[in-house]
Design a protein that fits this description.
- The structure holds 2 protein chains of 2 kinds.
- Chain A is an alpha+beta fold.
- Chain A is 21% helix and 27% strand.
- Chain A is elongated.
- About 20% of the residues of chain A have low confidence.
- Chain B is mostly helical.
- Helices cover 69% and strands 1% of the residues of chain B.
- Chain B contains 7 helices and 1 strand, in the order H-H-H-H-H-H-H-E.
- In chain B, helix 5 packs across helix 7.
- About 8% of the residues of chain B have low confidence.
- The chains are: A alpha+beta, B mainly alpha.
- Chains A and B meet through strand 1 and helix 1 of A and helix 1, helix 2, helix 3, helix 4 and helix 5 of B.
Chain lengths: 176, 184
Amino acid sequence: MNPSESPNTKMTEDEIDALLTRFFAEEVPTGLPASSAQPPRPRVELPPGMTARRPRPSRFSGIAIGIGASALLIVAVVIGRPTSPTEPLAANSVPAENSNRTPVAYPPVEDPPRLLERRTLLTEDGPVEERTHLRYVRVPVEDPRTGRTVEVMIPELQIELFPSEPPGHSVDRLPE
Amino acid sequence: MANRKHSDMAEVQSATWTERVEAVYRDQARELWAMFYAHCGKPERAYDALQEAFLRLQQQPEGDILDLRAWLLHVGRNWLRDQARRKSSGTVQSDSLDSRGGSEAEPIDSLIGEELRGQVREALHRLRDDDREVLVLRYALSWSSQRIAETVGSTPAAVDMRLSRARQRLATELEKMGVRHEPV
């Protein structure tokens, strides 16, 4: 191995292995104890018939979900405000249960994306359809109290823009 | 009398707590250093984080912490994040730690020069976090794939695969920096 002046050949895995072995031999401070005396953590053996379960959400996950839901509502309000020059031509062809923009109660289960809003906007490139989906995703979060990773569900907004169909060609026309 | 007894008990508890912290240091210091190193990529800073975490642990009242290792990891990582934010903290990065280990060979005989060491550090820093983590656990702690798997929540086979890919990515990064294989 030679920096900068060697031929154009990438190091092999064995060479990397040897390099890292030597590198870390000098990188680790000698002030540290020689090696960790702690044995590997024993695995919890489950009795036959039992299966491992996901960790139950802690109080912390509830707080995280609350914060996420609040952020979602703020984002939804900001997005929902029509801004010039993209005034909606026709708004809300969404399913009836969401058409009045009632805040969606976040469910405790992971569900498929739910259409929150669909509207047509006038842009410089012509009319486009904006679809806003809401879904809940599981994300790992480190619990600051225990340092363990727990899974929490947070809301996620997905906004897609599609070129609007020419008049008369759409299979999903807005009601007149 | 009662005060004397209370004071004696406090001293005993304090001694017990100190011994416990020392025992945790003996058992966990190297592993924690490796975790901090994987986080920041700087041996001296990782060592500082380790010392800071144990210093704060020593100052904690006994019984307030359920999981000492998790607490130390959390405190050390937070300290590293704070340090990273303070770009003008004036921390001097010393490349010549008095306590640094290594061979007793003459510098000219050293297989890894300072230049190459810096390049390896930089290449490690460019890797993804999970790649760097398995490399540090394997090479800094000499852990088996089984033990790494238990720590990162994976399987030994998956760890071996990740190690192999991490080595290849490291080779790629080193190649970009001009560190290449020298044919015999």
